[in-house]
Amino acid sequence: MHRIGHGIMGLVALLFLGATSIDTxxxxxxxxxxxxxxxxxxVFVAQGKGIFAKxxxxxxxxxxKTGAALTKSLAAGEIDFAPATFTNLPVALEKGxxxxxxxxxxxxxxxxxxxxxxxxIIARGKGINSIKDLKGKKVGVKFGSAGDLYLQEILRxxxxxxxxIKRINVSPSSYVSAxxxxxxxxxxxxEPKVTDALxxxxxxxxxxxxxxxxxxxxxxxxxPEVVYKDRKRTQAFVDAMAEAAHFLRDPKNADEVAEIGSxxxxxxxxxxxxxxxxxxxxxxxxxxGTMAAFKGSVKLLIAQKKMKKPxxxxxxxxxxxxxxxxKRHPEWFSDIK
Length: 337
Fold this sequence. Notes:
By secondary structure, the protein is an alpha/beta fold. The protein is 43% helix and 17% strand. It folds into two domains: 7-114 and 215-333, D-Maltodextrin-Binding Protein, domain 2; 119-209, Periplasmic binding protein-like II (D-Maltodextrin-Binding Protein, domain 2), CATH 3.40.190.10. The strands form three sheets. A five-stranded mixed sheet has the order 7-6-8-5-9, with helices on both faces.
């Protein structure tokens, strides 16, 4: 009996190991891109919390500094899914790049055509207390970014244009140092740089945050041949993103989320992550509101002569995957309207 017992135990162990190896071999490889800022928190949480793995995905997260760099990596086949904001993506679509957006990444586009609470304009120096005080001043911004579109729109609403300021192209990684050194009088930034600049720069002030001027919004997309080659894998990816977004939004997980974010954003303290993400909407849903937000961004891009004509968002967005997720897992969306 003793020998038989050991034999059975050994067989059970082998069967267990065999099942484990089968599960591992069946895990599907996936390369997911994310921006080097707290906008990428859904991806970071999905990876750091093991949610991608839970959904059968062996995922590698690829972090890039800008949306343009992510799009370039996607086009080169280096990653399978990546985000790009609605304030610059339509330009690439008009030029002929073929992409299909399948799940939300950042922004409140599901419910609103504008969502820009994570963008802010920080100024340093006497006499700059409002947008109109920027006239004749040196303002740093990354040309072609969502922050650039925000700046030009808020100037317009204040009876000004980019010709009324000295607009200087500044890399997001240099926002804090550029204004701290006195090279510029103000900077247009997004989180966590907004909060970081206010923390580090003596005498700095926030002269604008959000205000419903643009949609700093993005969905995750891939090439059609990648999205539809394996619909099961794409569905697993969308499911994981939705579950991660739900975990991220839960206040009781704030400390864990902040710690995960700091691991992916090296040099960013958990406390800064925690304070920054309060200004951002994380919603995996895409729908009619998303299409309205996309159209609104296109309208602004046309007005600024960056696009020639309207672009139908239905050519880009495919809601079928997230609709299926919502139907099967309503609990992941119960905390949002």
